[in-house]
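Aggregate trends can hide what the representation actually does to any particular protein. This step matters because it turns folding into a mapping between discrete strings. For completeness, the protein is quoted in full, as a sequence line and a line of structure tokens:
=====
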Amino acid sequence: MTRRHLLPLVLAAAWTLSACTITFVPADGPVVDRPRPAPSASAAIERFESLSSHYRVGDRIAFRVRTNRTGYVTLTARDPDGSVYVLARNVPVRANRTEVVPAPFGRVSFVAAAPVGLHVIRAHFTPEVTPERVVFVGRASLDAWLAQIVLEIGGFGFGADDVAQTTLTIRH
């Protein structure tokens, strides 16, 4: 195949793949989860934490987030069984203001539910609303989950150091 024929084929493949949904599923075998370092000093998210470190099933859960830029934050979570899912997508945040997510008097609330145990929640920032091209669903190791997030924020010039993380424990 000549170069002249290869370029249209590559462009067509890139266009087709840009509309795909990507879901990561861990490979068979043991999964090793390594702790992640804290976000870098230049990261858009300056602070991300749960209002409490322990909740009982049925309690309302909320988070504090502070960014140094105006934009949007997406929260994803990983349950003790390895299930990854979206808590909130494209939550508007203002620069240099500590926001509570979900808003205390808003129509949305997060309620602690099973499975009990340690839950990991990650926040990532984007300057614009993100389309749902990357789906955070299914079971994933911490590394595979991070790879999903980086795939979503990479187009905005952000990387793994720009992802903030907190943990909380849910009990009966």
DSSP finds two helices and eleven strands in the chain. Helices lie at 3-18, 142-153.
